[in-house]
Amino acid sequence: MKKEREPTRKLSGVVTVHEIQQERFSLQLKGINPLLMERKSPRIIQEIQTKQEQRVNPEKGAPKDFDALYEEAHYRLENGDLCFPAVAFKQACEDAARRYTGGEIKGTVTAGGFFVEGDMVPVKYGRIERTVELVKVPPRTGKLTPLHRPLVHDWSVVITIRFNKKGPAISAERIVYLFQLAGFHIGVGRKRPGLGHGYSLGTWEVAGA
């Protein structure tokens, strides 16, 4: 027996569209410990890809230019000024929400609750130190090779945050609190506390809003 379709009902009336009230504010973050940069050079990535595509033995490549590798480890704007990825600060806040708020602020809320605007954030600093240490490439199984990286002292950034002021899940005060937690517990860059192993680089304090 053929089943009859249930009657449909048309909705009537006016649908109210609630506007998202976006608000922006700025935060100044002042580094407590130096910031260790390790930008992945697009040139090196392309060389590795080319070698793998052509099946060339990477151990028989050209001699390494450590000065060039050191310079390429910096994050820089088109005008040459020092910068750092904005997303790193947002990811630090998401990590802090999951690990250090006791469930008060959920990581899923911070994921879409606010945004750090821009691709790169300009970095002000006092001085840059060239650091060198031996690492295995690839990690644990590779050969020891010197790794040259910039260590940025007395650094600070000003970031712009955008959020939904009418949203019930997050507020400006909670966002500032997350940046305080992230600056103390997580950090950004290499050898930051969020990676464990007793690291403490890349931490900050909220210096102003």
Your description of this structure?
- The protein is an alpha+beta fold and 209 residues long.
- It has two domains: 22-38 and 75-208; 40-72, no CATH class.
- Helix content is 27%, strand content 27%.
- The protein has five helices and nine strands; from the N terminus they run ββααβααβββββαβ.
- The chain is elongated, with a radius of gyration of 23 Å.
- The mean pLDDT is 85.
Secondary structure elements and pairings:
Blueprint: E1 22-31, E2 35-36, H1 42-54, H2 66-72, E3 83-85, H3 86-100, H4 107-113, E4 114-116, E5 120-122, E6 127-137, E7 143-153, E8 156-164, H5 172-185, E9 204-208
Antiparallel strand pairs: 1-8, 1-9, 2-7, 3-5, 4-8, 6-7
Helix pairs in contact: 3-4, 3-5
Outline of the structure:
With 209 residues, the chain is of the alpha+beta class. It contains five helices and nine strands.
If you average the pLDDT, what whole number results?
85
Please give the domain count: 2
Give the distance, in angstroms, between the N- and C-terminal Cα atoms: 70 Å
Structural category is alpha+beta
Main sheet attributes: strand count, strand direction, barrel closure:
4 strands, antiparallel
Give the overall form: elongated
Strands of the widest sheet, in order across it, are 4-8-1-9
Count of beta strands: 9
> Radius of gyration over alpha carbons?
23 Å
Helical residues, percent: 25-40%
Order of helices and strands: EEHHEHHEEEEEHE
Poorly predicted residue ranges: none
Number of helices: 5
- Which percent band covers the strand fraction? 25-35%
